[in-house]
Amino acid sequence: MVSLAATFGRGAMTNHWRDIRHADLILVNGANPAEAHPVGFRWLMRAKLDRGAKIIHADPRFTRTSAVADTYVRIRTGTDVAYFGGLINHVLSNRLYHDDYVRWATNAGFVVKEGYAFQDGMFNGFDREQGVYNTKLWAYETDQDGHARIDPDHPRSVLNLMAAHYRRYDADTVSRITGIPREQFMQVAGLVGEMGRPDKVMTIVYAVGLTHHTTGVQLIRSGAILQLLLGNMGRPGGGMNAERGHANIQGNTDHAISWDILPGYLRIPAPGQKDIKAYLDESASIKQHPRAVNFFGENYRRYLVSLLKSWYGDAATKDNEFAFDYLPKPAANASWISIFDQALRGKMQGVMLSGMTATSIGPDSNQVLQALSNLKWLCVMDPFNTTSSEFWRAPGMDPAKVQTEVFMLPATHWIEKDGSFTNSGRWAQWKEQVLPPEGEARHDHWILAELFLRVRELYQTQGGRFPDPVLKLTMPYRNPRKPELDEIAQEINGRDLRTGKRLATFVDLNDDGTTAAGDWIYTGHYPEEGNLTKRRDGVQDPGRNDPSGMGFYPNWAWSWPANRRILYNRASADENGRPWDPERPGIAWAGGKWVGDVPDYPPTTGPGPDAPLPFIMTGEGVGRLFSNAVADGPFPEHYEPIESPIANPLHPQQSATPVAFMYDERAGRASRFGTPADYPYVATSYRLTEHEHYVTQNVEHLVQLQPEAFVEVPAGLAREKGIETGDLVRVSSRRGKLEVRAVVTKRLGPLQVDGRQVYQIGIPIHWGFVGINTGQHWLANALTPFVGDASARTPEYKAFLVDIEKI
Amino acid sequence: MEVSRRRFLSIGPVGVLGGSALGFDLTESINVKQRLRIEGATLAHSLCPYCAVGCSIIAYTRKAANGRTELLQIEGDPDSPVNEGTLCPKGATSLQLAVSRRRVPQPLYRAPGAAGWTKVSWEFMLDRLARNIKASRDATFVTQDAEGNVVNRCEGIAFAGGAAFSSEEGYLATKLMRGLGLVHLEQQARV
Ligand code: SF4
């Protein structure tokens, strides 16, 4: 979600599932919602059936989403930057953007500092030694107050730089890179170009088909830029709608099970930040426009101090910087691939996995098996055995040689505990405990609390390295070994420490230690009157429960922040507070107040030319077409995947992104990348409707529905190779192989790319050596490359090279 | 909890069995069968554990004579503005995830180099794991980096998981792991 935060200030799906029904045009990229989010897909279908919306599905595969789309666009995997780039070019060069919106709500008119350059595939500021850009060089010209200079006609205005950057993405170039026929691309551009009108609105729906690339952050940012230009951000039926793939990824990202953040998207401190001030200087956004609210930047300290008070209680005082030193400060990226890289380097001793199986998830499962073998200990908490708990006896492993001590702890299922899930649309919904824990199974949080307290007791009796944070961490629960999720929900919400009362809004959080809140974006979900995520005023009574008629259902559960249903909704109305489209209002200024959704704006501040700017989370006050909050370029640029069948037509000498992190190379390990000469076909991996990653290998009905591993092979390639449906084939990459059945299909192409024919092979991910059908022991991620993008280090699961042969 | 009339009426055939391929309408008999199945049952509200659409489900349970709680049925919650009573094949079969003979019945321990699991007690596991965590933390904890910056981090332990954690569990996991000084923290957002 780096890309959305870099563009708008928050990294989350901007609208919500039901809201998609308000769209006129729906671009689906890197997603197959009909199969991967089937019930969410009903809202795309409602838009189509109820208001005649058009759906354009751009995907390497013709799927069930394509089957009901108005246009199916076959696109080479990983080339959406070029597709969106072509659309942006079309919109800019034909002046089809929403002019009033762009002037008021984006940084189009901001002047970029001298020195900005883009040449031969490289932006300015690249450090060859480190392989990174100095992103600070991508800045604005500022006046003596630090405010950006604004002059849309300046040759270095964002708008002018952008037009020059995107001019290269003409229809022929787009076609050459993506494989989309020129005429079809122009048809799509024609439809998209109409969406800059105030009475029209388009949404972009995407999933990990955009994320799982070394260019993933820029793929998504491309869509976000297009949406800003068309004036579609903040509006019902608009937005950038990321479809999250697991029940509570959103909630657990919000609460920061993520190396780079603390709860509420506060950045993890970095080495050298010796106190809170130094931390804020490098973390909080700075006000760059006199009318910017800069809400996050201005309040960052309140949220950090309130978090530290929650975690360290009385041990967090003014005199010790609220125990700021207790927070760990990572030296380097510590995300998923980094964990296994560290293990391969022999630096990681122990790994704890809960509901997540490293072996299957990959990338490069064979290398991950090696990494797990290097550990001293591995702890798996799960209701079922997984390919990680069983890794030491995976096919091809010799248990006698694996010295890792393995702990398998039976954990409870979601239905055996209460607590909330936050869905993709940020709706935090409470669930009740339906069943008691089965047998000896224990809740994950009880296991973790128990382990922590035992470690604390060991430090109390034996001492050890810097025990203070372990000894001082608050465990203010009735039974600290068995905290109730209700108690934790209250801690997350936070309270005024002087009165003991739970807070109703994060506006009341202080930076002097008088308030505590575990996650400021959830402050208000559990005020004194009770837990609002339990609310159930839904579609049983639309007249009463949906007063605006826009489907917000404000008393169904609770959404962050502040029960707001559409992020950035101030931009759904013009400068004077009138909805761009009165038929589909987000908020409107009426009778001295904002009505409709909960305003994403100071609630009592009226509109007008002198009023604060609409995007309250950025230092600029506007959405960022140009952004220096990403590691790989202020504007998105098309780069080829690390393994690609062709050299980048735009700049063959800089084919892939210069800033992708190459783990094996950096660690001095042998290269595990293949070349098109040895591996001539493009492969992409995906889910099927009937399975969810790997856990459903334990569900009988689902295994019956999709029992067996297979790969999808384009008909033309199958003919060349003499492969028929049902044949056993071997698919191999430089890193591993699968021996599974082939399904021959016309749904996969081929494509004409850069003057030649390219075949794409489809690889469903769900099988492994653990599950009901144990004959299906092949791991799809044995094929995928051990590499991630520069900003988020998300692995490139969706574009790599393979060979295929009939066995 | 009582099943209201409105709610009862909305309990139609949902999920994978919807529609009839037999040429005659099974709706009525399915309705009767459903009613018998959930008569006198306790109704609880939960959510589908799979994708992030966040479909609300209704779960029916009954206390069996032996004191065990039996999960009778899971179906889509008709009141939800997200799913309006519908579920996909995964949500519709989530009962089989919840109640399964495939559950790991008790803690299992695999010693270094061993060819199989040993069944052990929770006490054995928690004691040994806590000692491992402390030993690894002590061995890999860095209080100051080479430049003399206070960094207070544990480099040699990683925690990953939580895609189906309740948010509150996730928050506690973050708090406890950061409390131990972990920097390697990950869940299923990226992968
Ligand atoms: S029922 Fe299907 S669409 Fe709904 S949350 Fe579950 S997996 Fe997602």
UniProtKB/TrEMBL annotation, chain B:
One Pfam family assigned to this protein is Molybdop_Fe4S4
Question: Which PANTHER family would you find in this protein's record?
Answer: FORMATE DEHYDROGENASE-O MAJOR SUBUNIT (PTHR43598:SF1), TUNGSTEN-CONTAINING FORMYLMETHANOFURAN DEHYDROGENASE 2 SUBUNIT B (PTHR43598)
Residues in coiled coil: none
Q: Which residues form the 4Fe-4S Mo/W bis-MGD-type domain?
A: 41-102
Q: List, separated by semicolons, the cofactors it needs.
A: [4Fe-4S] cluster
- Signal peptide start-end: none
The UniProt entry, under Gene3D superfamilies, shows: 3.40.50.740, ADC-like domains (2.20.25.90)
Output the superkingdom of the source species: Bacteria
What are the record keywords, sorted? 4Fe-4S, Iron, Iron-sulfur, Metal-binding, Oxidoreductase
Supply one GO molecular-function term: formate dehydrogenase (NAD+) activity
Query: Its family?
Result: Belongs to the prokaryotic molybdopterin-containing oxidoreductase family.
EC number(s) on file: 1.17.1.9
GO cellular-component term (any): cell envelope
Task: Kindly give the SUPFAM superfamilies that the UniProt entry links to this protein.
Answer: Formate dehydrogenase/DMSO reductase, domains 1-3
Name one process (GO BP) from the record: anaerobic respiration
Annotated compartments = Cell envelope
Q: What is this protein called?
A: Formate dehydrogenase major subunit
